[in-house]
Every structure is written in structure tokens, then in C-alpha cells.
Amino acid sequence: MEKHRQALLDARGKILGKLNSETEHRIQWLMKFIDIEDELEELAHRQSQWTIKGKLTSSGDSRRRIDKYSG
User: Fold this and answer.
1) ∠ at Cα 41 (36, 46), nearest 5°?
2) From CA 32, how far away is CA 27, in angstroms rounded?
3) 3-class SS at 60?
4) What is the mean pLDDT of residues 2-12?
5) Is 1 in a helix, a strand, or coil?
6) pLDDT for the residue 34
7) Which of 28, 58, 68, 71 has the fewest CB atoms within 10 Å, i.e. is most exposed?
8) How much is the pLDDT for 20?
9) Cα–Cα distance between 21 and 28 in angstroms, integer?
10) How far, in Å, CA of 52 to CA of 43, rounded?
């Protein structure tokens, strides 16, 4: 009976070890996923700032051209 109990405890330990390992892997993949999402968000933010700055710069250039030719 003790051997059977020990075999069950060993099997349980192996299963728990695999579950912990899978959980660790899932956590690592989730962290990588979150890092990618953060980087994509940062790139989108930079792109929108660049677009806004580009529009401001180009409209400023247009005003300068108009002033240049109106004088």
C-alpha cells in the first residue's frame, strides 16, 4: 500500500511540475505578447505625432510661400 501511495505522489509531482512549466511558458509568451503590443502602440503614437508635425510644418510652409508671393 505504501508503494502505491508513493507512486501516486510521484505521479502527482510530475503532473504539478509539468503544469508549473506550462504556466511559466504561458507567462513568458504572454509577456512577449504584451511587449509587442506596447511597441506597436508606441510606434502608432510616434507615427501620429510625426503626421501631426508634418501637417503643421507643411501648412507653415504654405503660409510662408503665400506671404512670399503676396508681397
Assistant:
1) 125
2) 9
3) helix
4) 96
5) coil
6) 97
7) 71
8) 92
9) 11
10) 14
